[in-house]
Amino acid sequence: MLDTIENIEDWAHARNIIEGATPQAQMLKLTEEVGELAAGVARSDLALIKDSIGDAVVVLTILAQMYDLGLPECVKEAYEEIKDRKGKMVNGVFVKEDDSGKIRRAKDAQRMFNFWTFVETEMLMR
Questions:
Q1: HEC profile for 31-96?
Q2: What domains, with CATH codes, occur in the chain?
């Protein structure tokens, strides 16, 4: 995987994406890729899901490089933050404990669930 990330970084440098693009433009690209991922999930289209996840990782790799970060160090930092996290599943969503040790209100998880159900329904209608 590290070789692939290095290949992506080299590819992006060779095409002047890291130096010539902006983080804002890459965020728009990332949003586009996440939208494609949502469509793939909504349609249960495994090929689109796989392609979209890969495209999102490419954009995240480029975005990390724009800030002189490496994708592996970003992922490692995220894992260190979540590794001991406690919580529970609510409507198919992991809800972490808040600072007081109580589970966040199930209503918040329900709202999130309702939002993603709406997004999936809208994507299926396209």
A1: HHHHHHHHHHHHHCCHHHHHHHHHHHHHHHHHHHHHCCCCHHHHHHHHHHHHCCCCEEEECCEEEE
A2: 1-80 (1.10.287.1080), 85-126 (no CATH)
DSSP, residue by residue, 101-124:
SSBPPHHHHHHHHHHHHHHHHHHH
DSSP 97: B
Dihedral angle of Cα 90, 94, 99, 103, to the nearest 10 degrees: 10
DSSP state letter for 11: H
- Residue predicted with more confidence, 84 or 59: 59
Query: In this model, does residue 106 exceed pLDDT 70?
Result: no
Say which DSSP state 100 is in.
T
| ∠ CA 7-57-67, rounded to 5° | 80
pTM score > 0.70 for this model?
yes
